[in-house]
Here is the input.
Amino acid sequence: MNRMNGKVAIVTGGASGIGEATCRLFAREGAKGVVIADIQDSLGGKLQDEIRKSGANAAFMHLDVTKEPEWVSAVRETVAKYGRLDVVVHNAGMSGPHGRAKVEELTEEGWRLVMDVNATSAFLGTKHAIPEMRKAGGGSVVCVSSIYGIVGSRAGTAYHASKGAIRLFTKSAAVQYAGEKIRVNSVHPGFTDTPMTHELHARPGVREERLNLTPLPRLGVPEDIAWGILYLASDESSWVTGAELVIDGGMTAR
Here is the structure.
């Protein structure tokens, strides 16, 4: 119960889904502070209160991950509150109609929106976290990509491109900052039941198709991904950087 002992973490998209599961797990594993960063104020505040009632330390902060000034404020407030910053989990993301559109169906506006939320956000957050991690003597950045940052599908142009961008951003940053003990890794979830995928998985035939593509006979749940994020955030992975942790029930092994 102490794999995050003494560590302070910011988790974007932390109010629901994989982010929520990650915040709860970090708190249970003894984090000094867990910052639930999200635009969902009500859900974030509720999660903050629940974690605090369990005896752990958590704070909700409103953060639009596409806006650099908000990242500057979030990092500053985190350090002011907890004294340091050790971990950033870039989990906030979107798909929706823009993310799932084919090339000819996609607008420039839709492309930019998906890229900003899913990829530019990771650049901004990492940029402003690095100076504080340097002061702490090292740190861990975990970028939540997707199996669709590795392979393609029948649609999803912008989503795939944005998740692929995170994958390569991770490797570049990992090489640049390894000498300062700042590790950067990516996690690649497979088909997982989250609030973001609820509407898609409710469509006729989609769940069945995805189950058929997944060798382990179920879809993922947020906790499946959170355990992998915990490993990369903890000191257990102290010799792991620039890596891709695929958590997909075997889908990409086919």
About this structure: The chain has a mean pLDDT of 95.
